[in-house]
Amino acid sequence: MPSWFTSAWLYVECYMYRRVQEAMALCPPLNDHDVFSELKQKSFFDSQKAIISLCDHLGEVLNKISGLNKDEVKKEFQQLLQVCLWGNKCDLSISAGKDNPQKASPLTGLNDLKAKILIDDTEAVWATLEDKLKKNPSSTQCFRLDIVLDNAGFELFTDLVLAEFLLASKLVDQIHFHGKCMPWFISDVTKEDVNFTVHLLMASNHRWSSKLGATWRSHLQDGSWVYHDHMFWTFPHEYCSMEAIAPDLYAELKRSNLILFKGDLNYRKLTGDRQWDHTTAFETALQGFHPSALCSLRALKADLQVGLQPGMAEILTAADPDWMVSGEYAVIQFSDAKQ
Ligand SMILES: O=P(O)(O)OC[C@@]1(O)O[C@H](CO)[C@@H](O)[C@@H]1O
Questions:
Q1: Which of 151, 261, 264 to mutate to test the pocket of ligand 1 (most atoms within 8 A of CB)?
Q2: How far apart are CA 85 and CA 296, in angstroms?
Q3: Cβ(93) – ligand 1 distance below 6 Å
Q4: Does pTM top 0.90 for this prediction?
Q5: β-pair type (258-262, 225-229)
Q6: 248-299 tens-digit pLDDT
Q7: 257 C-alpha to ligand 1 centroid (Å)
Q8: Using N-to-C axis directions, what is the helix angle for 154-168 and 191-202, rounded to 10°?
């Protein structure tokens, strides 16, 4: 029987959430109930101000999108990628279920937060997206983006905003979302959370919120957005074992042109949750996991980080001993597709 103080942290956490699920499954009237749904829904309601301001912003961008030149599209992409990154700051797991809502407009503080992005591979992500346009602007070949989701509430909303922008700007043609098949780490996204978000937006009396809700529902119906869940995401395994343990999921991810991994837990599993030296290359820490080009968007909440310049970790530790766990710092860390 694993115990909290003698077992690997990641293993014990996964074990605990599975026991919660088991307890529910053993109570038939409750077996479909998500014990965390109330908390997740509250985090969505508490972030209304930020959600509405982002809806207005996206609405304005969509209105003029066909007239934007490449530089303007790139600038907007950079901005919404950062919003999506910082959306990961607000998860309920790190705050032990307490409120962590997004009150202010998510766009206003972005410039001040730039210094907190320890690794910023936005250019590499952009180059991957742009490659499709450059290679063959009139190509009928489909560019597929996959997003391995993290938290419901405000973070999921920022993921959908980025997805909408990428689809509307024709940088990508199809988006596959990957969520959890059971309640997980309190706030992780399930299919019900996606449906809840879309329905609530549709029912809103705010013009852009309801319009976006309706658009997103039709994306899910016409297949330009596809939602998947797979048991592997709720196993304790590191991702380098995916090909052996869940070959069907690995094969699915190989069809992608770019995979965005949201959040801290995904980062821990990408890198095996090991005590890597901070200067270890991301590529090395991935230990052969390479279904496609991938990028981690993560606010740091667990004590590991790879890919830093020599000396950087020491400077950060001297300035703020909690830099790895406070959620104040973040990375946009890319690894290219293997040929
Ligand atoms: O993946 P997320 O939502 O960014 O973060 C999840 C997380 O903060 O929750 C756990 C605390 O229980 C940490 O292990 C983990 O890093």
A1: 264
A2: 9
A3: yes
A4: yes
A5: unpaired
A6: 999 999 999 999 999 999 999 999 999 999 999 999 999 999 999 999 999 9
A7: 27
A8: 70
